[in-house]
Amino acid sequence: MGVYYFPANFVYWQQVKDHDKIKDVLLKEIYKRGDVSNGDLGLYAASTNYKEDQSLLNGYDQNIIKNIVWDPLENAIDEFNSGDSTKKISFKESRIVNSWYTYYKEGGNFALHNHCGDSKNSFSMIYILKDENEHNRTIFTELSNDYISTTSDCIEDTLFDTSSVKDIKEGSVLIFPSSLYHYVHSVKIPGRITIAINIVSFNS
Fold it and tell me: What is the torsional sign of CA 59, 16, 69, 115?
């Protein structure tokens, strides 16, 4: 008797260590750079503002990047691999491919998308840098054409609405496979700022 678990989607979250200090540092830099430009709606389909800015995460004390990216990623993989009979995630090296920050005005949202990209990203992260809204507005989904028949609503999209989890809030970083689709419902309180990060991992 046994059971084998196929590779699966997941969403992992935790609070970023020293978030308040990191928030002060990054917000000063973001505000110094001025208003973010309107996004290419054909690419991002967002009714908000974003700016792809790889340099935002460069030049800081490496502890900042360690706290935002590498420690949470290691924790996510350890947590995923702790399950019995799970096909383990194992990579020898990972690197940041790109990043951007998004400023949400009142009613700002992001349409359904994933982060696979041309570079075939492995993991993606959303760091909630600033958010005064009562609930997080990100929703993750497995689309119905990939439904799992053991669920009671097998012809529907499978959803994980993060607004139902109280400890997903400002200071949280969410980690998920880059292929996992997600979107952001309209925010009520303006000024929400998130940093998205894509990572490629290698076995050699």
Answer: negative
CATH number at residue 39: 2.60.120.620
State how many domains the chain has. Answer: 1
**According to DSSP H, which parts of the chain are helical?**
19-32, 41-44, 62-65, 71-81
Q: Give SS3 for 44.
A: helix
Please give the Cα distance from 31 to 185 (Å, whole number).
Answer: 24
Single out the residue of 197, 32, 202 nearest to residue 101, CA to CA: 197
Q: Would residue 21 count as lying in a domain? A: yes
Is there a domain that residue 2 lies in? no
> DSSP state, 67?
I
Q: Which range of residues forms the domain containing residue 89? A: 12-202
User: In angstroms, rounded to a whole number, what is the distance separating the alpha carbons of residues 202 and 204?
Assistant: 6
Taking residues 6-10, report their average pLDDT.
81
Task: Return the pLDDT at 42.
Answer: 38
Other CB atoms within a 10 A radius of the CB of residue 77 amount to: 19
Nearest Cα to Cα of residue 67 among 201, 171, 176, 202: 171
Residue 7: inside a domain = no
Q: 129-158: per-residue pLDDT in tens?
A: 999 999 999 999 987 666 566 655 555 667
In a domain, 163, yes or no: yes
Q: Which two tokens stand for residue 110?
A: 């992001």
User: Which of 194, 142, 198 shows the shortest CA–CA distance to 173?
Assistant: 194
| Tokens read off for 203 | 């076995």
Closest CA to 44 of 95, 100, 96: 100
